[in-house]
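Hello forum,

I keep getting stuck at the same step: I have a sequence, I want structure tokens, and every attempt I make locally crashes halfway through. Rather than fight my setup again tonight, could one of you with a working pipeline run this one for me? It's a single chain of 420 residues.
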Amino acid sequence: MEGKSLMRNTENLFNENTYKKCLNMKHFSDKKLSFSIYKNATVLPYKKIEPAAVGGGVVTNKGEYLENTALHTKNGVGYDVLYKKESSDKIIYLGMFAGVWGHCITDNLRRLWFLKSKYYKENFINYKLVYIAFPGFEFNDNFKTLLDIIGIDCSKFILINEVTEYDEILIPDESFYTLDGSARFFTKEYRSMINEIRQYGLNNQKETSYDKVYFTYSKCSGYKQIGEYKLEHFFRKQGYKIIAPEQFSFKEQLNILVSCKFFASTIGSCSHNIMFMQDGAQVILIPRANYLTGYQLAIDEVSDLNINYIDSSLSLLVDKNCPWNGPFYYYISDKLYNFFGKSTKDSYFSYKDMHDFKRYMELCFMRNDLSDSKSISYYSSVLMKCLQDYKRNSLSYRIKRKTKIIELKCLLINKIFHSK
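Reply #2:
Ran it on my machine without issues. Output:
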């Protein structure tokens, strides 16, 4: 039984129809989880395959690559090997681990439900626990703390760095998964682990003054995004405490999340934390560009929250292959003003906004991220309004002239894309 009722408001997106299909999808899966056993199968460690593929996972004794043994389905590939070790060990394969926090609380957890099962404890307790990992991954203090809370001792996990054939590989089913590389689904086992973490936070709750919080990326995002400081300033004026989560331990973050009643963030690892909040909490999510991640839409349904999606970005030229790499541009949109009941007559695209937008466009051109960007059409009318606002509120003819030049450039880019 699903047992959760999500309240999701999307009327403050620039174009709801763009997301109609994914917003109507349900992400809870009632499938019964089990496991598979492969004899004389091989574990391939992580290997970057040019130009952008990820190598690594499990290959059967018939040479079949098991696609869901990479970070997720549609993400990995097998690769040829000249030499492999042979081991008589029987192992449980836990997956390909990534260090990004959003992956830690989704993909890295997806097979761990099995280690909490009675069947594992009664039949497979002596099997070795192995995983492969992206370069740089480690069990940092926050991830280790999270695993400790759900009774998982990661000191028993063995990282595989060499191609190795094992007598027997047991692979638990995924409790958080994708079939097409886009939409995500979760099972009751995944929700149970998240609820266990949330309940720990409630049982150990400490008094905090953080009733409204905005989780920011600004302390660690580098050149990936421009303008989040404006969102910080806006939400601070609405009474939100600005939190850089990486500056807190996981237990401190968890205490903030179970204690606050209002949460806001741009979409990404920060926003994935909303599943630890108490039922009924109010959430504002700001898409980084013209897409909603399958991860976030599934996470929305794990707990019973009131979620408002509000567009407040002009990320025109994100990477076409990996849009999560940005770059992203934020400003204070009319949609955001209206949500808080504020008049938009005082809202306009300022000189500072234009300065930041110019930096953003320069960054895009430097990264060569111009090909096939659907975001141009998504943002076109909003962009033109912003430019008109800026021109109307600028007193200098020279500034107006520069604005006209930028308008013409944007129209030219739009024409180029639609002529392909």
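The radius of gyration is 23 Å. If your local run keeps crashing, start a new thread with the error log.
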